[in-house]
Design brief:
This protein has 6 helices and 4 strands, in the order αααααββββα. The protein has about 170 residues and is of the alpha+beta class. The chain is globular, with a radius of gyration of 19 Å.
């Protein structure tokens, strides 16, 4: 932690009025490089589908594990969030529209802040019905796209529904 190292003052290096444009430029880089990018083109997050398929495989197997944990950085979490359709992380723009804070909800600091996480809680009953609830930064989060929640719920999905809507 830099604060523990000493009293550093970087205000001489960057003017206050430059901070927001630089943050927006950095967010544009993440949006096009690891996020939803262009409408109709999933090249920036398509490979996250393999991770999702493996996560669903693990969720559907009654293996006695209490948890299956994976650790990563923003470079994987951002495409995963886009693939899962998480609100604010998955809205692409038409090729004719250039990313800006005015036309996109994407903010890297919200999609994948320090200590970011995507958590799936898996519930299975005696009849082997598997329900999955997703949390993004410890908050219940809906799966995007055409994913339909389990009857009578807002955030629980059957594993078969997630396969249908995420891995067609």
């Amino acid at each position: 932690n830099l604060r523990l190292e000493g009293p550093f003052d970087f205000s001489e290096l960057l003017l206050e009025e430059h901070l927001q444009p630089l943050a927006e430029l950095d967010d544009a880089d993440s949006f096009y490089g690891r996020g939803p990018a262009f409408a109709g083109d999933d090249i920036t997050y398509r490979l996250a589908g393999r991770l999702v398929a493996d996560m669903l495989d693990k969720a559907e197997q009654p293996n006695g594990y209490v948890a299956s944990l994976r650790f990563t950085h923003a470079q994987v979490l951002m495409p995963l969030a886009a693939f899962l359709g998480i609100a604010g992380a998955s809205e692409p723009l038409p090729q004719s529209v250039l990313y800006s804070y005015k036309n996109s909800p994407w903010r890297s600091a919200k999609v994948s802040p320090m200590a970011a996480n995507v958590q799936w809680e898996v519930y299975r009953n005696a009849d082997n019905l598997t329900l999955i609830r997703m949390l993004h930064h410890e908050r219940e989060t809906a799966f995007g796209g055409t994913c339909q929640p389990y009857t009578g719920s807002r955030f629980f999905y059957t594993s078969s529904e997630l396969r249908r809507c995420l891995l067609p």
